[in-house]
Amino acid sequence: MPSRRTSPPRPRASLIFGDLWEFDPAPETADPKLKPRYDLFIGGRFVAPRTGRYFDSVNPANERKIAEIALAGEADVDAAYAAAARAFGPWSALPGRERGKYLYRIARLLQDRAREFAVAETIDGGKPIRESRDFDVPMAAAHFFYHAGWADKLAYVAPGAAVSPLGVVGQVIPWNFPLLMLAWKLAPALAMGNCVVLKPAETTSITALKLAEILQDAGLPPGVVNFVTGAADTGAAVMGHPGAAKVAFTGSTEVGKRIMRQLAGTDTRMTMELGGKAANIVFDDAPIEQAVEGIVNGIFFNQGHVCCAGSRLLVHEPVADAVIAKLKNRLRVLRVGDPLDKNTDLGAINSAEQLSRIRRLVAAGVREGAVLYQPPCSLPGKGFYFPPTLFTRVTQSHRIAREEIFGPVLSILTFRTVDEAIEKANNTPYGLSAGVWTDKGSRILRMSTELKAGVVWANTFNRFDPASPFGGYKESGFGREGGRQGLLDYARLS
Ligand code: NAD
């Protein structure tokens, strides 16, 4: 097991093929421009919550309080829906090209403040600065740009039918990609002419509230977008509000089911982006070095807090030993630590609660007979950290093969035939994503047809593009985000 560092922290070291390499700290120093307290964003203004209550947002890398966040109650959610309903008429009546201009402005302003947003995202959520800088923030801007491009072309979204907006949309998002999930939800809703009430996750509200500053700077009409912050009760109030023409939820399957039960019998439309337990399948003809990089990216990106993470590796028996040996070598050089350090590969786990869930499931893996491997690495003395972990000798019945761990933990299973790989990959209640590594085009075609997953990557993993629809099968949800299909989920057809 990895050791826990005691103070004072030494410069971190990594073992690379027997040589000891020392790295100097390389902290990102841009000012995230955080406020000590964040209010709700309703009707284009920051307003104090009617509850009078605030909760702390904590930096998971060092457990220090970052800011106080307003706790929205039902009256605040009512006020947000009322503001959105007032804004809907004029906003939906604007020509699409005018709405597109606002979306372009939001994207450009986000690009202007990209470094500041990246640092804020990392401090609030624990992800490595390299990822928030190179992935989260640019992809969020890309979603606004992409949907700005659609706003004046809505006549072509559904050939043969006219599209119109639904009204006020309620949205609730998770903590793993706070700004990006927000962009996935806001951009298509706004391009189509809807107004929004959105609740970010309670551990990661800050970039949403910083984006509210951008919405003000972009001159977005008051009430078109409203942010209410809080935890489950606030989320339930947003999802169950009678003013919502549609709700869009991203989060766990368990909460998604609860919301579906809450809304059963109403005419509120729903889309659900839920959990996953993706199979990343490596055949014996795959480019092995490339596959190993894809496996590492598939499970350790964002500490494994990724709904489409390749958390089950299915490896063809003839190459299993070689792949596992290479993976272990690769794990030994992953750098775990300060998320603000530009050399960090794995940052902090998002919260104490998530860390204990990961620990519980890893303990279950050991108890049920899977074989644990963790490289030697030292973890910072304070903060929520978990080392990169893999399990071999995993069977289909193990909890670590069935349940979403949502952490840096890879469960490795083997297979002998293509049919067995398909059978094992599909043997899950989830169906969000999958990966296939092989030299054969025909095999890629067959696997992409037979794998019951919304996204199937071939010889790559975790690739995203705003033009490419993303969403699940089975208990991973329904509806799509991105592309023409994502826009259609915010439209009425006539
Ligand atoms: P979660 O379901 O616990 O919480 C998600 C959001 O729902 C949070 O904002 C939370 O405050 C809110 N919430 C909690 N209870 C609620 C209720 N009863 N009614 C309404 N809202 C409520 O999930 P999480 O731990 O924040 O996120 C991790 C989960 O999200 C994982 O299962 C992951 O796979 C999933 N996820 C899915 C996608 C996707 O696109 N399919 C993307 C990212 C994350």
What would you say this structure looks like, in words?
The protein is of the alpha/beta class and 494 residues long. The protein has 2 domains: 37-274 and 475-493, 3-Layer(aba) Sandwich (Aldehyde Dehydrogenase, Chain A, domain 1); 279-458, Aldehyde Dehydrogenase, Chain A, domain 2 (3-Layer(aba) Sandwich), CATH 3.40.309.10. Helix content is 39%, strand content 19%. The protein contains 15 helices and 24 strands. A 7-stranded mixed beta sheet has the order 17-19-20-16-15-21-22, with helices on both faces. A 6-stranded mixed beta sheet has the order 12-11-10-13-14-23, with helices on both faces. Helix 2 packs antiparallel against helix 4 (129-151) and helix 9 packs across helix 10 (317-332). The chain is globular. It starts with a strand and ends with a strand. It binds nicotinamide-adenine-dinucleotide.
Number of strands: 24
Low-confidence stretches: 5-18
> What is the CATH topology descriptor of the largest domain?
Aldehyde Dehydrogenase, Chain A, domain 1
* Strand neighbour order, sheet with most strands: 17-19-20-16-15-21-22
Layout of secondary structure:
Blueprint: E1 3-4, E2 13-16, E3 19-22, E4 37-38, E5 40-42, E6 45-47, E7 54-59, E8 64-70, H1 74-93, H2 96-112, H3 114-125, H4 129-151, E9 163-165, E10 168-172, H5 178-192, E11 195-199, H6 206-217, E12 225-227, H7 232-239, E13 246-250, H8 253-263, E14 269-273, E15 279-282, H9 288-300, E16 312-316, H10 317-332, H11 352-367, E17 371-373, E18 378-379, E19 389-392, H12 399-402, E20 409-415, H13 418-426, E21 433-437, H14 441-450, E22 455-458, E23 477-478, H15 483-488, E24 491-493
Parallel strand pairs: 1-18, 4-8, 10-11, 10-13, 11-12, 13-14, 15-16, 15-21, 16-20, 19-20, 21-22
Antiparallel strand pairs: 2-3, 5-6, 7-8, 9-24, 14-23, 17-19
